Amino acid sequence: MIAQEAQYRDWMLAALMGDAGAYRMLLSGLTRHLRSYFARRLDAAAAEDAVQETLIAIHARRATYDPSLPFTAWVYGIARYKLIDEFRRIKRRATVPLEDAGDLFGHDETAEAIARRDVTKLLDKLPEAKRALVKDIKLDGGSVADAARRTGMSESAVKVSVHRAIKSLGEELKDGSGDADR
Amino acid sequence: MRTDDLIAQLSVSVEPVKSGAVARILLGTIALGLLGSVMVMLAAIGLRHDLGTAMASFGMWTKLVYTFAIAAFGFWLVERAGRPGAPMKRPLLLLTLPLLAIVLLSVLQMSAPHADMPGLVMGHSSHVCAPLVLMTALPTLAATFWALKRLAPTRLTMAGAGAGLFAGAAGAFVYCFHCRESAAPFIAVWYTLGIAATTALGALLGPRLLRW
Predict the structure, then answer these.
(1) How far apart are CA B189 and CA B126, in angstroms?
(2) Contact B11/A69, CB-based, under 8 Å?
(3) Which terminus of chain B is more solvent-facing, meaning fewer CB atoms within 10 Å of its CB: N or C?
(4) B5 touches chain A (CB under 8 A)
(5) Which pTM value belongs to this model?
(6) Contacts with B148 from chain A: Cβ below 8 Å
(7) Confidence class of residue B125 from pLDDT cuts 50, 70 and 90?
(8) How far is residue A131's CA from residue A113's CA, in Å, rounded to a whole number?
(9) Number of CB atoms found within 10 A of residue B196's CB
(10) Residues B160 and B206: beta-carbon distance below 8 Å
């Protein structure tokens, strides 16, 4: 069972009886999951469009929710349908494996934001030059050749430098785990 | 529009949803389709002339019960298909019951002493049965698609097939009042073929027509 099921279902049942406050909380809560779900599969603008499309669909078709069935599975069904719709629009082959609702509710954008923040915090511990290289190549997906040209280093020197930096970060994580919570 | 604004707008006031809304949409629309199927049957091929005496025969009730059972489970399948994330396993499993029953009854009739095997299977209308079932089913198929579109089908091939199965069985039920065949093997082959053809048509049309 998905952790949020009980809470969201309660809000949905209240909303179906006309409780606007519960409905607003439900939609806000779902939006966090939907953003993360679509952001992992679409580019930023299309993802936000898909979030809104899904919210509108949830609203327009809310009568199709059967209270005897899991609410999270209902939302996931709609989100997946809207994703296929979006793929069709951008003419990508529309095959989305049928996963379960855990795929939607296992993540939300808060968790991803925390992960991003942790990485940034960790990177701050590197010396300036190395930090730029790691960010360039490992986070932003730049090429080693470009970085070498920009810094005037040889390609192998860039590789070695990045490799060492990652290794030292790994060690930092190992003995600094208490540190990260501060 | 910003997503936060959208949420605010959607939740200004939420109209309460009455329970049974889905059933109302389905039943209202589909009743219209069934009426259409009855009209098509009456206008194009007509009732069998000996309907009065036929209603007391075992063959007539075999057809009626067989097609009604498939239509009932098919209706359930359509209802599931209209709801995102709803499992369809149970109606699909139950569908095997009428199929199993008609096969059993066919075997029984064909293994009777002096059974005319080819006659039992081919009857006298085998070449028109399936196409006429499909024709009779079309109004119901259209109505079922229309109803499904107002729900939220997310697996369109499956939903289309479900609609086709229901409409095919409903069409076959209506066709029973025209058709004079009564042997179980005939029903098992040709009625089932008509229902299967309607199901295939629905599966084909689903992804094209059921988008919402």
Answers:
(1) 9
(2) no
(3) N
(4) no
(5) 0.78
(6) none
(7) very high
(8) 20
(9) 16
(10) yes
DSSP track, A104-168: HHS--HHHHHHHHHHHHHHHTTS-HHHHHHHIIIIIS---HHHHHHHHT--HHHHHHHHHHHHHH
**Distance to chain A for B76, nearest Cα, Å:** 13
Is residue B57 classed as helix, strand or coil in its secondary structure?
A: coil
Residue of A nearest to B14 (CA): A18
Please give, rounded to a whole number of angstroms, the shortest distance from the CA of B27 to a CA of chain A: 15
The alpha-carbon gap from A44 to the nearest alpha carbon of chain B, in Å, equals 13
Mean pLDDT lowest among A161-165, B87-91, B140-144: A161-165
Q: Is the pLDDT of residue B84 over 90?
A: yes
**Which amino acid, residue A123?**
L
Residue A111: the pLDDT is: 67
Domain ranges of chain A: 5-105, 109-180
With b meaning 16 or more CB within 10 Å and e meaning fewer, what string describes A134-169? bebbeeeeeebeebbeeeebeeeebbebbeebeeeb
Q: Which residues of chain A have pLDDT under 50?
A: 178-182
The percentage of chain A sitting over the pLDDT mark of 70, rounded to a whole number, equals: 90
Q: Does domain A109-180 bear CATH number 3.30.70.250?
A: no
- 8 A C-beta contact, residue A64 and residue B83: yes
Among the partner-chain residues A20, A62, A77, the one whose CB lies closest to the CB of B13 is A20
Chain A / chain B CB contacts < 8 angstroms: 88
pLDDT of residue A178: 45
For residue B120, give the 3-state DSSP assignment. helix
**Fold (topology level) of A5-105:** Rna Polymerase Sigma Factor; Chain: A (1.10.1740)
Q: Which two tokens stand for residue A32?
A: 């966090």
Looking at beta carbons, which residues of chain B come within 8 Å of A27? 7, 10-11
Q: How many helices (H) and strands (E) does chain A have?
A: 10, 0
Cβ within 8 Å of A, B 135-194: 151-152, 154
Residues in chain B: 212
